[in-house]
Amino acid sequence: MLVVMNKNATPQQVEAVVKAIEANGYTARPIPGGDRVSIGVLYNKGAVDHHRFSGMAGVKEVIPVTRPYKLVSREFQPEDTVIDVGGVRIGNGNLTIMAGPCAVESEYQALTIAEHVKGAGADIFRGGAFKPRTSPYSFQGLGEEGLKILAKVREETGMPVVTEVLDLDKFDVVEEYADMVQIGTRNMQNFSLLRRAGHSHRPILLKRGMSATVEEWLMAAEYILEGGNTQVVLCERGVRTFVTHSRNTLDISAVPVVRRESHLPIIVDPSHAAGYRDQVISLARASIAAEAHGLMVEVHHDPDHAMSDGAQSLYPAQFETLCKHVHAIFEVFR
Ligand code: PEP
Ligand code: MN
């Protein structure tokens, strides 16, 4: 349930509502809005009698929240959330493109790709330092050395950087170097990692689990918001299906559903959805046509020798084409 205060409600009136909610055994979570405060009622088991609060001084209305997710839901917050990643905005009217290699392989590789993607119009640089690999024999990433290279990329190009965290014990170091912390598909329901992300001072990029429903995904985001970190961007990256012509199946319908259900921005990763570079531009175009707020795209200057995901990595010239096309599509909605 959400208690929406009048625009001119006093801090004392807000405090009185918070106390009344707590006196009923619930948790009150005030959410400052543009011009008014709303107060979320959490940890209620079953319906809350709204008459307890609707007559209180300063209360405009009481809205029942019917969804299992609360803080991430549109019922809770009708306005789109806009996330700031090192000065780059994501959500509501912005088209934000993150691009870079699957994995940071060397300073030369990262800087070379960063110059290319920046020139083509990327806003944020991506690159894995800790890589979740199916095989223990595959390249696992450069670890902290990779994080240092990412910091160098930011310094040289001015682009903020996003990188994945795999484990709780590496969260502090990833958070120290990255402008945005990514939680990947394999960790979407790693609840201790989600709880740690809830205490992070960095924005979180939460990828959809490869077999997760939209509801499970939004519940995972709820863990982060519940912990106090409201800076979450969702990323659709394809789900497992029976097909073999692509690595995953991009669930385009997740974009309008998430936009309807949540105020959080949603971007699409066409690279991991496709698995093959010849599908990536089409999926990127479709994603922006479906009104995703941005993209995360894998790009490599020498994909044939990439240490991971070379087959789905675009050549720099292809990425330039992608940027041109998606910006043109984005203009249709402006
Ligand atoms: C990645 O973005 O590098 C990655 C591993 O993606 P996902 O978690 O979607 O597989
Ligand atoms: Mn990859």
Would you mind describing this structure in some detail?
The protein folds into 2 domains: 2-63, 2-Layer Sandwich (Alpha-Beta Plaits); 83-332, TIM Barrel. The longest helix is centred in the C-terminal third of the chain and has 17 residues, at 316-332. Helices cover 35% and strands 18% of the residues. The protein is elongated and about 65 Å long. It has helices at 11-23, 51-54, 107-120, 144-157, 171-177, 191-198, 214-226, 254-261, 270-274, 277-289, 316-332; strands at residues 2-5, 27-32, 37-42, 59-63, 83-85, 88-90, 96-100, 124-126, 161-164, 180-183, 204-207, 232-236, 266-268, 294-298. The two termini are 34 Å apart. Helix 3 packs parallel to helix 11 and helix 6 packs across helix 7. The protein has 334 residues and is of the alpha/beta class. The chain has an 8-stranded parallel barrel, surrounded by 6 helices. It has a 4-stranded antiparallel β-sheet with strand order 2-3-1-4, covered by helices on one side. The protein has a two-stranded antiparallel ribbon with strand order 5-6. It binds phosphoenolpyruvate and manganese (II) ion (MN). Manganese (II) ion (MN) is lined by residues 102, 272, 298, 308-309.
